[in-house]
Write a structure and sequence with these properties.
By secondary structure, the protein is an alpha+beta fold. The chain has one domain: L,D-transpeptidase catalytic domain-like, CATH 2.40.440. The chain has two helices and eight strands; from the N terminus they run H-E-E-E-E-E-E-E-H-E. Strands 3-2-1-8-4-5-6-7 form an eight-stranded mixed sheet, sandwiched between helices. The protein is globular.
């Protein structure tokens, strides 16, 4: 039996769609598993039990690796690009491919671990809003002293750019302007400190 070119193409595209869906489902499943631990931590430490922010640094920086998870609805509310630290003295040019982690002041590296999102403040970058981050573990205990904050920058893209890399930061979790506007609205409507968890 002869199979038309159109039929062959549709079969191929259907297969690709299933691969993409499987990859997306896999990423979502990992975030959901992390959210279970996050909720337990939030309950035990008097933090926000409505939402949290998860940043999976094992994901390529050109892909969505920040997820805002809703504990009540048990689903991801939003995802976006999130830059990691350059570790190169502040030039924003190094360590594009693999994040290097450090808790050392002036290292310009990202720090893994759980953070309490603190007060809203002024930023020199992006939409001029930042949120102070308080490190809650040994791996990020110097975050506040290092002025590690959640902020945006106009060079961070709104959409995935893989296989290209997102620009690096000076150690801060840095997002797009559109994502920061969305996060700002969410964070201003919460009275209880929210958890931001950076891991790989």
């Amino acid at each position: 039996m002869r199979i038309s070119l159109f039929t062959s193409l549709m079969v191929f595209l259907f297969g690709i769609g299933h691969i993409c869906l499987a990859q997306s489902d896999s990423k979502t499943s990992i975030w959901e598993q992390k959210a279970v631990s996050a909720l337990k931590y939030c309950k035990e430490n008097g933090m926000n039990t409505d939402q949290c922010i998860l940043v999976d640094m094992s994901i390529h920086s050109g892909k969505y690796r920040l997820a805002v998870y809703d504990f009540n609805e048990k689903r991801i509310l939003n995802t976006g690009i999130c830059s990691h630290g350059s570790c190169d003295g502040g030039g924003r040019s190094g360590s594009y491919e693999t994040p290097i982690f450090s808790n050392t002041p002036e290292s310009y590296c990202s720090s893994k671990g759980k953070y309490k999102i603190g007060k809203r403040g002024y930023s020199n970058y992006g939409i001029h809003i930042n949120y102070k981050l308080h490190g809650l573990e040994k791996t990020n205990a110097n975050a506040y002293k290092r002025i590690i904050v959640l902020h945006s920058w106009s060079e961070v893209p709104d959409s995935e750019i893989y296989p290209e890399y997102a620009p690096t930061s000076w150690g801060c979790p840095m997002v797009s302007n559109a994502m920061m506007k969305w996060l700002d609205e969410l964070l201003q409507n919460n009275d209880t400190p929210m958890l931001l968890w950076i891991y790989e």
